[in-house]
Design goal:
about 160 residues; Alpha-D-Glucose-1,6-Bisphosphate, Chain A, domain 4; about 30% helix; globular
């Protein structure tokens, strides 16, 4: 995908865990820094204490030396099925996690869709931070996120079974 164009990236992984286990881990946004290599801190805002449509949270991310905070809104929260949130702004992406039962456990799909190009300043800052292709960078980070999530979910289910 050429630099500066809208983003549409999807990564899928099958995990030996129940959909509810994976959903609970992902939808607890206060733990997102454990999974995502770009997220450094998250917290619920206002009266929000957990995933619910309309709940907002603050998420702080890092890319190289560049750090920024956004305040996304949860747009979907169906335990064991889907968790999604929209980053504010005209070019703010929507992040979605879906959980589909599979013979080996659950197929987790993480996707990010950004329908409008990021503003020039953001693209310049990303490039200065070493990101030549944002979609490729996101794909790598999302793969790491699902890898970490799978390890935690598998460990959690092993503890529950024993």
């Amino acid at each position: 995908m050429p630099h500066g164009t809208p983003v549409d990236v999807t990564v899928t992984r099958t995990v030996a865990a129940r959909p509810e286990t994976l959903y609970d881990l992902v939808s607890d946004v206060t733990q997102m820094a454990r999974w995502s290599p770009e997220t450094v801190a998250t917290r619920w805002l206002g009266d929000a204490r957990g995933a619910a449509v309309g709940a907002r949270f603050a998420g702080t991310n890092r890319l190289g030396r560049l750090t920024w905070t956004t305040k996304p809104t949860v747009t979907a929260a169906r335990r064991g099925a889907v968790f999604a949130f929209k980053v504010p702004g005209r070019s703010g992406p929507t992040w979605t996690y879906t959980f589909t039962p599979a013979p080996e456990g659950t197929t987790v799909t993480e996707s990010v869709v950004q329908e409008r190009r990021s503003p020039l300043l953001i693209r310049v800052l990303q490039r200065r931070a070493g990101v030549k292709d944002r979609a490729d960078h996101l794909r790598a980070g999302m793969s790491t996120t699902l890898e970490r999530l799978a390890a935690a979910a598998t460990a959690q289910q092993t503890v529950v079974r024993t």
